[in-house]
Amino acid sequence: MDKALIPEGVKRCPLPVFGLWMLVLFAVIAWGVYAGLTVLIKGLHVTGLNNYFGFGLYICVDLGIIALGAGAFFSGFMYYGLSRFFPQLKELHKIINLAVIVGFCCYTGALLVLLLEIGQPLRGWFGYWHANVHSMLTEVIFCISCYAIVLVIEFVPIILENRKLDAVKPLHIFGHNLHEIMAIFAMTGTFLSFFHQGSLGGVPGVMFARPFAYREGFFVWPWTFFLFTLSAMACGPAFTALICRLMEKVTRKQLVDRSVYELIGKIEGVLLLIYLILKGLDTLYWALDTAPGFGLKLSDFYKEPYGMWLLVAELGICGVIPVILLLTPQARKVNGLLFLAFFLDCAGIVINRFAMTVEALAIPVMPFDQWAVYIPTWAEWAPCIAMLAYGAVIVSLSYRYLPIFPRERELNP
Amino acid sequence: MSLGRRAFLQFVGGAIGGTLLTPIPWKLADDSAIWTQNWSWRPSPERGEITETTGTCLLCPGGCGIQARLVNGHRAIYVKGNPDHAVSRGGLCPVGAAGLQYLYAPYRITQPLKQTGKRGDPQGFQPIAWNEALKIVADKLAAVRKKGLPHTVACITGQDRSSVTDLWKQFFAAYGSPNLYTMPRHSDSTRLAVALATGYDADLGFHLEKATYVLNFGAPLLEGWAAPVRIQQIFSRWQTEQPGLPKTELVHVESRCSLTASKADRWIACKPGTEAALALGIAHVLIREKLYDAAFVSEKVFGFEDWTDAAGALRKGFKALVLAKYSPKDVAAVTGVDAQVIQELARELARQKNAVVLWGQSSDTPNNLYHDLAFLALNALIGALSDKAMVSLVPSQPWQALPEPAMDLEAFKGLGQKPLGQPTSVPKTKVRPNTLHAFLNALANGEEYPIELLFVHEANPAYGLSENTLAVQALQKAGMVVSFASYLDETAAYADLILPNHNAFERLDDVIGLPGAPFAFYAVATPILKPHYDTKSTGDVVLGLAKTLGGTVAQSLPWKNYEEVLKLRAAKIAEGATGLLVDATFDPASVEPGVSLRANFKKAADVWKKLTAGSCWVEAPQALDACTTPSGRFELACQGLLASVSTNAGDELFMAHYKPLPPSGNAGELPLLLTTYRSLSLAPGYVPNAPFMNKLLPDDLLLKQDVFVEVHPETARKLGLRHKAKAVLKTPLGEAPVRVRVAPTVPADVVALPEGLGHTAYDEYVQGKGVNANSLVEVHLDPVTGLGTVWATRAQLRLA
Amino acid sequence: MVIDLDKCTGCGACAVACQQENNVSFRPDESDKLRTIAWMTLYRLDNGKDYPEHREAMLPRPCMQCDSPHHSPCTFVCPVNATVRDEHTGIVDHIAVRCIGCRYCMVACPYHARSFNWWDPKWPKTMEAMLSPEVSPRMRGVVEKCTFCHHRLNRARDRARINGEDPDGVVYTPACAEACPTGAITFGNLRDPHSDVARLAKDPRAFRILEKLHTEPKVYYLSSDQWIHKQSDNDLS
C-alpha cells in the first residue's frame, strides 16, 4: 500500500523509519495539544501573559511564522505573475510546490495557535459578525482566513498528483483544471497577502498611544504596513529555501537545482536591501521625529533584557550581513554562506516581529510606570513547537507521497 | 451493498459540503458563543427592587454615617457615605467601603460554638444552642461569685465608645470585679496625662477646623488617626484655598517619610522616638525668647516657676528645667534636627494665632506619660488651652453613663480588689488606668490571683495587642474564655465558648464621642439589614446574663433589651436639653468650649427618631476654667504624681521630660531600630484586611505571602541586601521572614514594618500574608502608669 | 473627571468602592500586579530624592476615557466593536459578552486601564450575596475596565425620563467620586463650560497624563507640586 502511494521513480526511506519519525512528531504534537487543551480548559493564566503583556509568544510566533510563510504567495506571485515579464523566474516552478506546502503549514498552524491566544475562542467568529472596519485585526482575521482557504485550494492539486489519486479519472481532471486556473488563485492569494502581511504590520503601527510601535504612514496605513509586507517578501522564499535545503540534508538527495537557490538568494538580497533601507529610514524618522514628539528618546526604549542588542541584532547582524552575503555572487556560490544568509534573514525578521509585539509592551509609557519582563511558560512553548512539528508532518507526508519536486527524478538518477 | 472506499470518501465530502449548507454549523457557532456568555458557574446576582438604608459604620471608632443599597431589602450590595452626616459628609474610608466583605465574610461565626476539643483546636468547635451556651456562662458566673471570687472574672473589650462598654462597666461593678479592660489606645495615656494636669477625666479634642498652623509630632493624620474620615476632610479643607482665609500650614515631625510627611507643608525628619525632645526644645526657645502665652501661664498654670511640694520642699519648675536641659543645641544632638530649625519652628509656632500641637505614634498605643505631658505642656505654652481653645477637653461621658449600680457586699469586696497585675505606682486620678498588658502578664505568669472567666468582646488581642504572644499565653491560662466575636479570629480560636455578636452592619448600637474631635458626640448605629445568621447582640446577652444572675446584678441592669438602653440615652439627651442634633451643615468651628449649644429638640421620642435616621447629637466641650488639680490650675508640675514617685524623687519626675524607655537587646547583635507604620489601605484594627483592600497593596509591600520592610539604600548596601531580596528580621521577640524594599523613606539603620498583616486566622484571602508587626515589637511598661508603651525595638536584618 | 492630587491621600476608598460597585472579582493572592483586575489603580509616585528630601504621592488612575479624534486608542483597534466610545456622552464602554479576549485594546492602552480575566472569577459563596445586579460579573477570557459607572448614568437618565425631565441634562456621580473622603475627585460634564470640572480643568495646577500622545484623556489631575507635574509626561523639564 505504502509503496503504491509513493511517486514513481523516486526512492523513499523504509516505512518503519518513516513511521518512527511520524511517531516522534506526533508525540510533540500531542504535547502541544495537551498544552492547548490546558489553556482552553483552565484559561490563559497558565501562560506567562499578563495585563502588560497582552501579546506574547503566541502572537510573536504567529507573526513570525506568517512572515516566513510568505514564500507561498511571493513565489506564486513571481512564478505565475512576474515570470511573464522576467522569464528567468520560471525556474521557481521547481520549488513552488514546496512553497505552497510550507505556506499552508504556516497559515493553518498560525490559525490554530491564534485560537488559543484569544480568551474566548468560541466567539472568534465575532470578528466577521461584529467587525470593526477600523481595526487592523479585523483585516488580519479576514485576510488570513481567506488566504488560508486559498492555500488549501492551492494545496489540493498538489495532493491530487499523488499516484493513486491521479489514477482516478475525475480527480485527475479536477486536478488538471485546478492547475489551469492556479494563476488566478495565486494572484488572489497575492492580493490577500499583500493586505494581511501589511495589516499585521498595521497591528502595532496604528497604536498611536504606544510610542515604540506607532508609526506615521500613508493614508490609513502606517509605514509598518508596508515594511511588514516587504519584509515578509524578503524572508518568505528564503525560508522555503531553508526548508528545502533541510530536506535535502535529511534525505541526502538533491531536490532542486542549485540555480534555484541562487535565484532566490539574488531576489531576497535585493528585497532585503530595499527593506533595510526603508526600515532604516523608518527607524531614523521614528527615533528622531516620532518618538521625541512623544517625549521619548531612543535610549528610553531599550533596557535590559530588551536592550539595544535587539536593534543591532535585527538590523545589523540579521540585516546588513545577509544583504552583503546575498548580493555578493561569490558568497552566493558557497553553500554555507548562502544558507547562513537565508537563516540570518529569517532570524532578523522574526526578531523584528518580536520587537514589535513583545518588546513594544515592556516599555513603560507613563513615566512612573515600570519596565516589565515577559517569560513564556511551557503552555505557550508547547503549542508553538507542536505547530512546527505539525508543519514537519505535513511536509514529510507530502514529500513521501507527492511528487512535489519536479526535478527530483532527474537529479537523483 | 458494500461501501467502497471511494463511495465513503464521496459520502464524507458530500456530508461536509451538505452540512455547511444547512443552518447546523452556524447555529452551533452561535449557540456556543451564547453559551460562553451565560456560563452557569458565573454568579448571576439576584435582581429586584433596590432600596437604601441609613446607618453608622462601627468598623472603627470614626463614627461615619453610611448608606447601604439593598436588593429586595435583604441583600446589601453597596455601602456609601451618608452625605447628610455631620462628621463624614458622604466620605468613606476603604475599610468602610469594603464593609460588605466583612458582613458576607466566609469567616463569620454563624451560630454559638463550644470548644469540645483542646483549647485552640479549630476543629474542636461544635454548634451549641443559645440557651445552653448562655446557661454555661451564667452558671459559671454564679459559681465564681458564690465562691466569693467575683474579681476573678475579667473582660477585654475592643469597643470603648459604645453603650455596651457601659453595660460591661455596670455589670462588673454590680458583679464585683475590677478587671475590665479595653484594647490599648493612645487615649489611655493621654487621659491619664490630662487627669494629672487638669484633674478632668476627658479626651483631648483638637480644633483642627479653626487651626491655621498644625505642628504634628508623629500622629499618622492621613493614615487613620483618630476619626479617619473627619481628619481626611479637614486635610482636604486645608488644601482648599478659601478666599480671605489664611492657608493652614501643616508641619509634620516623624522619622519616616509617611504619606502625612509627604503631604505636609513641611516635614521635619527626626530620629525615631525623639519627638518629645523636639517638643521640649521648642518649649525652651519659646521660654527663652519669651514667646509663650505669658498671660495664660501666669494666671492658669502651676509649676512653670519653681514650686514647693506638700512636704515643703522647694522644687524646680518647668521653666528652670527646660531652660537647663533642652537648649536647641542639646536637642539637636538628640533628635538630629538642626538647632536653627528648632528655633525657626518655635518662632513660627508662636507667631500663629491659631496654632495647635498634635502628637501620636504610628500605632494607636499608649505613650510614655512624660512625653504626653511634654506635648500637653507645649500646647499650654502656646496658649492652645486658653480661651482660644485650640485644644479642649471632651468628657468621655457627656452625661452620667447609667444609673449608679446597686452593689452588694460581694460586689464591694470584689471591686475593691487590686486589678490584676496593676503596679502600685499608678497615679490615683479620676481615670482608671487601663493596664491590660500588666493584667495579661500577671495572668500568663500565674501571679497574684487566677482568672476564672475571661470575656473577650469585639477585641482580638491574640493578634492586635502589641506583643500579642502575651495575650495568647494569657488566654491559655484563663479558666474559661468566652468570646463574643462575629468572626473566627485569632482570639476566638482560643475561646471555650463563642457567643457571636451581630456584625457591625447588622446590629443596633451607638457611638459615644469621636476621638480627637473638639465636641461631645453621640450617634446611634441602626442596622442596615437584618442579621442573617443565628447571632445575638452582645448588649442583649449581657443584660440577659445579669437577669439570670438575679439580685443586685439584675437590679443594676434592669433593661429589657439593649434597644431600651439606647433609648435611655435619647431620653437623657432630651432631658438635658442641651446640644444639637445636626447634619452635614454642622460646623465644628462654631462650637465654643463651655458654651452649651441651645437644643433643637424637645421630646425623647423625637430625639430617638432623628438619631436613628442618621442625625448626630453634638455638644460643646467643657471650659478649662477650674481645674480640679491640687493647685486648681493646669499643672505643668503634676502634684498628682506625688504618690507615685518616691519622696526624694528628682524634680523632673513631676513633669514633662524626655526619657525614652531603653529598648532591650544588644546593640551589637541587633544594630537596627524597628519601627512600624500604618496605612489607610491596611486595616490594623479589629477587622482584618478585606480582599478588596488587598488589591490596593503595592507589590513592594506585599508580594505573594511576603511583607516588605523599608530600608534606606545606605543600610541595604551595608547589609548586602538588594531591592526585593528575601531577608530575616530579628528582634528580641523573635524572627520573621520578610523582603526588603530599598527606599529612602526611612533614615539609615531603621527598619519600618507595616501594621495590619500577618493574620493566622480567617480565610485564604487573609491568612498567612506577611508578618504581624505586633509579634515583633517590644512593649515597655511605663514605670509610672503601668501602661504598655511601644516606640522602637532593636532589630537585625540579614539575608535569608 | 478631575482628581486633585493635593487632596488625595491615597487611602484607596475610591478603588474599593469601585470594586464593590462594579462586581470586580478578587483572588486570594492579589500581589501579582500585572494580573490583578483593577479599574481604579493607585500608582505611587516619588520625587526621586534621598532622605529626608524624599516625598511620595499617590495617583489614582481610572480609565482616561480618551477623547482623541475619531477613536480612543482602544476603540480603534478592537476587531469586534466590543469597546466603543459613545460620542454623545464621551464614555468608552466595554461589552464583556462581545469581547473575544484578543487583548489588542490592552496592548494599545498606554495607561494600563484595562485588565484581563485570566481566571474564572470566583467569589466565596457567602460573598455572592453582595454582587450588584446592575453590573454583570464578567467571565474568564474577556477584558474589563472602568466605565465611569456608566450604569449609574443610565439609571439617572431613566429616572429623568420617568420624571419627564431632559435625560441629557442629568448629573450623576461614579462610585469613586462618591466614596472619596477628601473630595479629591470631581466628576461632571467637561463639555459644559459652567461645570466644576470644566473650571478645574483650566486651573493652573491642572495637567493630564501623557498629553504628548494626543490621546486627549478626559481625566485631569491637579497638583501644586512640580515634581508630580514632571511625571505626567515623558521628557518634561
Rg of chain B over CA atoms, rounded to whole Å, is 29 Å
> Total number of β-strand segments of chain A?
2
Poorly predicted segments of chain A: none
Count of discrete structural domains of chain B: 4
Oligomer: heterotrimer
Would you tell me the structural class of the helices and strands of chain B?
A: alpha/beta
Look at the structure and give the CATH class of chain A.
Mainly Alpha
> What number of domains of chain A?
1
How many H/I helical runs of chain B?
A: 25
Count of helical stretches of chain A: 16
CATH topology of the largest domain in chain B: Rossmann fold
* First-last Cα distance of chain B: 79 Å
Mean pLDDT of chain A: 91
Principal-axes shape call of chain B? globular
* CATH top-level class of the largest domain in chain B: Alpha Beta
What is the CATH architecture assignment of the largest domain in chain B?
3-Layer(aba) Sandwich
SSE string of chain A, helix = H, strand = E? HHHHHHHHHEEHHHHHHH
Give the CA-based shape of chain A.
globular
Helical proportion of chain A, percent range: over 70%
**Terminal-residue CA separation of chain A:** 24 Å
The largest sheet of chain B, given as strand count, sense and whether it forms a barrel, is:
7 strands, mixed
Transmembrane segments (chain A): 20-41, 53-74, 95-116, 136-160, 181-200, 220-246, 267-288, 308-327, 334-355, 375-399
GO cellular component, one term (chain A): plasma membrane
InterPro entries (chain A): Electron_transfer_protein, NrfD_menaquinone_reductase
Keywords (chain A): Membrane, Transmembrane, Transmembrane helix
Please tell me about this protein's structure.
Chain B: Pfam families: Molybdop_Fe4S4, Molybdopterin, Molydop_binding. Chain B: Keywords: 4Fe-4S, Iron, Iron-sulfur, Metal-binding, Molybdenum, Oxidoreductase, Signal. The complex is a heterotrimer of chains A (413), B (800) and C (237). A two-stranded antiparallel sheet of chain A has the order 1-2. Chain A is mainly α and 413 residues long. In chain A, β1 and β2 form a beta hairpin. The mean pLDDT of chain A is 91. Chain B has 800 residues and is an alpha/beta fold. Chain B has four domains: 54 residues, ADC-like domains (N-terminal domain of TfIIb), CATH 2.20.25.90; 297 residues, 3-Layer(aba) Sandwich (Rossmann fold); 194 residues, Dimethylsulfoxide Reductase, domain 2; 128 residues, Barwin-like endoglucanases (Beta Barrel). In chain B, α13 crosses α14 and α22 crosses α23. Helices cover 20% and strands 14% of the residues of chain C. In chain C, the strands form four sheets. In chain C, strands 8-1-10-9 form a four-stranded mixed β-sheet. In chain C, strands 2-3 form a two-stranded antiparallel sheet. In chain C, strands 4-5 form a two-stranded antiparallel ribbon. In chain C, β4 and β5 form a beta hairpin. Classes of the chains: A mainly alpha (413), B alpha/beta (800), C alpha+beta (237). At the B-C interface, β3, α3, α4, α8 and α9 of B face α1, β2, β3 and α5 of C.
